[in-house]
Amino acid sequence: MTLVADQVSVRYGRKTVVDSVSLTLGPGLHALMGQNGAGKTTLLRTMATLQKPSSGTISLGEAVWPDGDVRLLRRRLGHLPQDTMRRSRLTVAEHLSYMCWLRKIPEDKAPAEVDRALDSINLTAERDTRIGALSGGMRRRVGVGSAIIGDPDLIILDEPSAGLDVSQRESLRDITAQIATRAVVVVSTHIVEDILTVADTVTVMKAGTVVTHCPRRDFARDGDLADFERRYLAMVGS
After folding, report:
1. Would residue 129 count as lying in a domain?
2. What CATH number does residue 231 fall under?
């Protein structure tokens, strides 16, 4: 399955937030980078069918947004927005079961789907723990688990590692990389270390436009962190 953004623009009045973005992303992990206000979140919301493009289309296989039936695309995607998984009285398993209900997974198949998601995010031991009692890193992993319920073809993660410490980010990075072996995973981040060793492609946005899109190995010499950061900062103007 391939995700295609074709000349996507989003405008609010006279302000253009996303400007004629075209991307083709196959299965794998795709990093979307850029400073605050670059248009990353708006582009991800458009991919997730939460923001209608002013022009252009998003397609995944034969599902096309906004020209076609949006339900076809929504059935195939999982989305983790920013600032989700706050305090909750639900246990991890209860929350994932609720996500199965939202995604219309048959009741007899939901327990196995919950178990699969728990295993993928390494939280099987915490299945009966209330989400509000988990650490920030674990709550973000529950959010990722929510996004993968139903085994979608497209998974969109908006700043999944924001506010996490180094060890929590490493754990989440490894989980995300594993999920990307079977789906198109688009991850927005501004933390270079999060994607330096695992992303398949890097896309950098500035002022609503894509300033570069290339395989991660072409972005920096031999995975050199300093070189990666130098090139990134030069592109975004800092």
Report:
1. no
2. 3.40.50.300
